[in-house]
Structures are given as structure tokens and as C-alpha cells.
């Protein structure tokens, strides 16, 4: 039996073994508010208004996005 055939068989067997033994990846979990690093404003804190570009030492966020979890489908933009 030729040596290249033995090497090919060993290579295929090791590849199949590595595919079977690799760990399964965990599915991603949905993000929560605790996972996000958003500075929140406390009740009674003044909210400053900045015009132009400026570095703010303590930013306050009064509202941040719409966190509605809806599935995204590839054909959702088509008009019906």
C-alpha cells in the first residue's frame, strides 16, 4: 500500500475526529440594561445643554433608544 494513501487516510480520520470532539458554541443571549454602559440621570439632577463641541466630565443621558426586541427577517423591508 502506498504511503501517501496511508497518510491521506490518517489525515481524514484525524479531521473527522477533531470535528466530532470540538465543543458546541453557546447561543448568544439577549442584552439587558445591565449589560449596557449607559450613564443615567438621577431625579433632580440638572441636565446641561451644550452648543458645539465640548468635553463633558459627567454626561447625563435622559433617553437612549428603543429597546424593543423584535426578530429581524431578510424580507421585512418589502412592501405588501
UniProtKB/TrEMBL annotation:
This protein's name: Uncharacterized protein
Species this protein is from: Maritimibacter harenae
Taxonomic path: Bacteria, Pseudomonadati, Pseudomonadota, Alphaproteobacteria, Rhodobacterales
Amino acid at each position: 500500500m502506498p504511503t501517501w494513501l496511508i497518510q491521506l487516510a490518517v489525515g481524514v480520520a484525524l479531521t473527522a475526529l477533531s470535528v466530532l470532539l470540538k465543543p458546541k458554541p453557546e447561543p448568544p443571549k439577549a442584552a439587558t440594561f445591565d449589560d449596557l454602559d449607559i450613564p443615567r440621570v438621577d431625579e433632580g439632577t440638572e441636565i446641561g445643554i451644550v452648543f458645539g463641541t465640548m468635553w463633558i466630565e459627567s454626561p447625563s443621558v435622559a433617553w437612549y433608544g428603543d429597546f424593543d426586541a423584535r426578530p429581524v427577517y431578510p424580507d421585512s423591508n418589502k412592501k405588501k
